[in-house]
Amino acid sequence: MTKPSEINTRKKRKSLPQNRGNVRREKLILAGKSLLEERCIEEISLANVAKLAEIPLASSYHFFPNINSLWVEIASVFGTEISQVIFKSFTLDEDDNWQAIIRICIRRAAELYRNNRSYQQLIIGGKTPAYIKLADRRNDEVIGRLLIDAIEDHFVIPDFPDQAQVFFHAVEIADLMFMLSVNKHDEITDTMEEEAKRASIAYLKCYLGEFLHQ
């Protein structure tokens, strides 16, 4: 009969390669983000990433068969992070309306991009690959649904057709303003952050009106 201690030893042996693999994968992701902070996306190869991560290139292919697959993974990390950042708890004043939540969300998103040039270049840069744009559209659909939930936590949203699609469009409008700013100024300026707020709110007013009941 196999002793419990022997079973535990086998489990530990099996988990060691897996843990080592997770560490290497994370190193490659961090190295990719670091290079995006400093270099143009078109200039970065998987070999560059592997060198910075101090992982043999042959081993890197086990995690990411090409540089595009690494960018997709970083875009996925961004999607998770931006949702967590945007939808932290909201503290509203008594006279605030639903528009205050939109302003807070857009401000938080702009700050995340400003503090992470890697995300700015990969997601809203002028040379963002088409497959990353597609992945980000899916992220924006999730953000649109979470935005509905955030507003409904404080206000009553009236029923109207294609509600999720409307909020997705509002997110895309803000993204467009961010992209225009990055393409022209290489950053999200304060002016274009305000434009993103104005444009998204103006669009949503067509469906929500000026005020919502609490």
Describe this structure in words.
The chain is mainly alpha-helical. It has two domains: 4-65, Arc Repressor Mutant, subunit A (Orthogonal Bundle), CATH 1.10.10; 69-208, Tetracycline Repressor, domain 2 (Orthogonal Bundle), CATH 1.10.357. 75% of the residues lie in helices and 0% in strands. The chain is built from nine helices and no strands. Helix 8 (163-185) runs antiparallel to helix 9 (190-208). The longest helix is centred in the N-terminal third of the chain and has 35 residues, at 4-38. It is elongated and about 60 Å long. The model has no long low-confidence stretch (mean pLDDT 91).
Annotation keywords:
single chain; 214 residues; mainly alpha; Arc Repressor Mutant, subunit A; Tetracycline Repressor, domain 2; 0% strand; elongated; DNA-binding; Homeodomain-like_sf; Transcriptional regulator, TetR family
